Description:
Elements: H1 2-13, E1 52-63, E2 68-73, H2 78-81, E3 91-98, E4 103-112, E5 118-125, E6 133-134, E7 139-141, E8 153-157, E9 166-167, E10 171-180, E11 187-195, E12 205-211, E13 221-229, E14 235-241, H3 243-246, E15 251-252, E16 254-257, E17 260-266, E18 274-284, E19 292-300, E20 309-314, E21 322-326, E22 329-332, E23 341-348, E24 356-365, E25 370-372, E26 376-380, E27 383-392, E28 399-408, E29 416-426, E30 431-437, E31 440-447, E32 450-457, E33 465-472, E34 477-481, E35 484-490, E36 496-502, E37 510-517, E38 524-528, E39 531-535, E40 539-544, E41 552-558, E42 565-569, E43 572-577, E44 581-586, E45 594-599, E46 607-611, E47 614-618, E48 624-628
Antiparallel strand pairs: 1-2, 1-11, 3-4, 4-10, 5-8, 5-9, 5-11, 6-10, 7-8, 12-13, 13-17, 14-15, 14-18, 16-17, 18-19, 20-48, 21-22, 22-23, 23-24, 25-27, 26-27, 27-28, 28-29, 30-31, 31-32, 32-33, 34-35, 35-36, 36-37, 38-39, 39-40, 40-41, 42-43, 43-44, 44-45, 46-47, 47-48
Amino acid sequence: MRKTIRFLFVLLLAFFAAVGCSSSRHNPITPEKPLANPDLPVVVSDGNTENHSLLGLWSIDFDIENHIATLTPDRSPETHYNATSLIPPPEIIVNSYDPASHVIDVDVTLTNPFNVDVYDVRGIVFVDAVFHYLLNPDNWTPLYDIPSGYPVNPFRAFAKSIPNRKFAAHSQQTENFQIYLPQGNTNVQFAIDASYPGNCEEPYLIENFSQDNLFEYAGSSTTATVYAYDWQDNVNHVSLYCPEITNQDLVPFQDAGSNKWELELVNNRGAGVGDYTGWIIAKSSDSANLALYDMVTIKVISPLPNDPQLVGALYGCNLVKIAAVMDNIVYFRGNPDSDNDWGIPRINITDLQSPEMLDEIPLGSCDILWRCGTPSIEIRGSYAYYIWGVAYNPWNMWIWSYNISIMDISNPSAPEEVFHYPLYNETDETGGTVYLYNNYMYIIKNLYTDYTLMIFDVADPTNAQLLNEIPIAGGQLTRLKNGFLFTYGDVSLEESRIYIYDINDPVHPDLISSFVSDSGSIKDFILYNNLAILSDSGSIKVYDISDPTAVELIGSIYTGSAIYGIAASDGFVYTTGKNAGLRVIDIRVPHNPTLYCTLNDSRIYGDVAVQDNYAYVGAGPNGFFVIKLY
């Protein structure tokens, strides 16, 4: 009874009348029919959900010759959804119709003439048995679904430019709809949904899905990201549905913070070259079974790095360690300059052929008694997480002070420290390193030969919380993946050991196993898919880590010279070495890694990062290089 009374209250006060129109024009786009997959998991199709109200359901008949739209109320859902006949049809202005693509372009205007605000007003176009559908949706919803149609339906949201998408009393809003009319079938089912007395409880927006290169062979993997937003800021589950590629029903994303969700997308089925339809499904902790959906395109490609080409360079920058590549900017772990100021060096790669040095992001400075140590930096989104050391010598004895800081770098010219944590003071230059994984920051603090793991919750970077601090083995170099922390230490001149900790419970890391690399000191190692790839003074070794308690050496390749940088992407390992340039090693068959191709340029050695089809190399005094891989 409470819901019915509230609905009638909303219905009477939020009475929508049709006025006005938009004169905007939009070029029709060529429609691509959505993948008709009846197995798409839908968790709710009932419109009687908390604070949602169906304000009207109509059948629209388009006169495509005279550019007229006629709306007829559909009374069938009245009993089921508590709808009434008090809602008049909105006004629809037909801008254009393209008979070649069967796309009609219309503006839909709604007006609220009463003294009540409603929220998250949506115009839903139902995908029916003949496949009418909206070509420019904001997202998709399962609410009010019709028989014989698609399990979810696309909608356009009104008042998107207004805070909280509030459709205020005595205001009007217009949205453009581009609708596919299959074979000129001009009858479309249309509904208006709104939330009252506040915003909807499920996520209100899914956007900005992106993926790096995914190749056509089975096992190819890449990173996919998407952003999901909820007015209550409590999105708790985002997943991908694309079994044609993943060979699974739902693959969960991981919360990367700041509304960003990340997924390791794996081509488990060996899907061939082409575009595949995938669905993003987002839920919130208080939205019961109601989810928001978005249809995305996942691309599978075939190019391979057959002939790497040097396409850009910047000389005189003397930078080596790459911290991140984001939004056409390469960030480095910087060294103090001659004035003892230090920060994050940046190179703009918008023009790949002419990289440009940008101003450093300033992180700190030292007075005449101090000298600065090179910081360990990780960058995620608009925050830099770093450990830094400064030393002073007031009594002819150097004292080192180490600190953890988190800096908001959204304004690069005026960064703001939002978190500070002192580590220790020592009479010897020791230090520490910082690593990020999900919503946690892992600090490896080293004092001489003793290593300590500190774990911080950084879900809110401005209020990081120390969860635990434990002594660990290894500590010289650390990598994190799939809920496990891998860290190595030298046992002897001939032997290095990698220790594996289970960090699925981040408060209580558990040492579960270790394995020995018998090729001497490890120069670097990376984790890729279910592999650990180690580099030493003259070779690459490949370990199977699919079972972290039973790691197995499965392949190796002799490189002949020391390796300065290593990265992996799409079945290939990229290394740099002095007088060796860039080497590309094929590990698509990890038991038999082979040299695939090279770029012979003795200047190219140093840290390497791979993104999309480019490799970026920080080669110290030799400069910074951009290499096109394919």
